[in-house]
Design goal:
Blueprint (H helix, E strand, L loop, with lengths): L1 H6 L7 H11 L15 H14 L3 H13 L5 E2 L14 E2 L2 E2 L15 E2 L2 H13 L5 H7 L4 E4 L2 E3 L4 E3 L1 H4 L9 E5 L4 E6 L4 E6 L5 H21 L1
Antiparallel strand pairs: 1-4, 2-3, 5-6, 6-7, 7-8, 8-9, 9-10
Helix pairs in contact: 2-3
């Protein structure tokens, strides 16, 4: 899929086309419930399920169930009918800016929200404040019972970074958890220190480099707190 959109950034996708691409070009990795592997396809399916249950478009559901109640006034779902605003920062994949290209529809329910760092902070505070989700759902989201890769654990929609697993040199760093995007965007929370770390690097080149920068920020922050 990355090769397709890199060669033609004006391609537009429907959710059904994204599901068809997965069915036609990918293979199952195991029996459901017995093996974990991250894929955005699950979120595309979830978006379609929400539309069927609510009888509304996914963008409307987000607006009415999330953005308006939380006061996230600068957030919306990118669609070909509602492209990104002119002031949006670039999103670079293979040095091509996709922020105003139809191919950005490849994300949809897998992460296609246009937002700001302030709105991400609002969302994360609501998530942690217990004003938006039930205790049961929150516990499921923060169980982190699946291994994404070394030092990174996954549950329902969120990742946890265990820095002591990433490197013994980072053993003194407290865990962070939250949402992470492939273009170096993240909203993470340090529960022990009640601190939020939110950033946007806007490039696929920062998929891992963004976390390296996060470690540098943590080191500076930890020194400031100690001092």
């Amino acid at each position: 899929m990355l090769a397709r959109i890199s060669s033609n950034s004006d391609l537009a996708f429907t959710p059904q086309e994204l599901i068809s691409f997965t069915r036609d070009h990918q293979e199952p990795i195991g029996i459901p419930g017995q093996q974990f592997y991250y894929s955005d396809t699950g979120y595309i399916l979830l978006g379609l399920i929400l539309e069927a249950v609510e009888g509304q478009s996914y963008s409307t559901i987000l607006e009415e169930k999330v953005f308006k109640p939380l006061g996230m006034d600068h957030s919306y779902l990118f669609t070909t009918e509602r492209p990104a605003a002119a002031e949006l920062l670039g999103i670079y994949i293979n040095d091509i800016d996709f922020s105003r290209r139809d191919a950005l529809s490849v994300d949809w329910a897998g992460g296609g929200v246009v937002t700001t760092m302030n709105d991400l902070l609002t969302f994360m505070r609501a998530l942690e404040g217990g004003e938006w989700l039930s205790d049961e759902v929150y516990r499921q989201m923060t169980s982190f019972d699946q291994q994404y890769e070394k030092g990174i654990h996954y549950s329902i929609g969120m990742m946890l970074f265990d820095f002591s697993e990433l490197s013994f040199l980072l053993g003194s760093m407290t865990d962070l958890y939250g949402g992470v995007g492939a273009t170096g965007t993240y909203m993470l929370y340090d529960k022990q220190k009640d601190t939020y770390f939110i950033a946007n690097f806007g490039s696929l080149k920062y998929r891992k480099k963004g976390i390296e920068e996060l470690v540098k920020i943590r080191m500076i922050y930890d020194r400031m707190v100690v001092e």
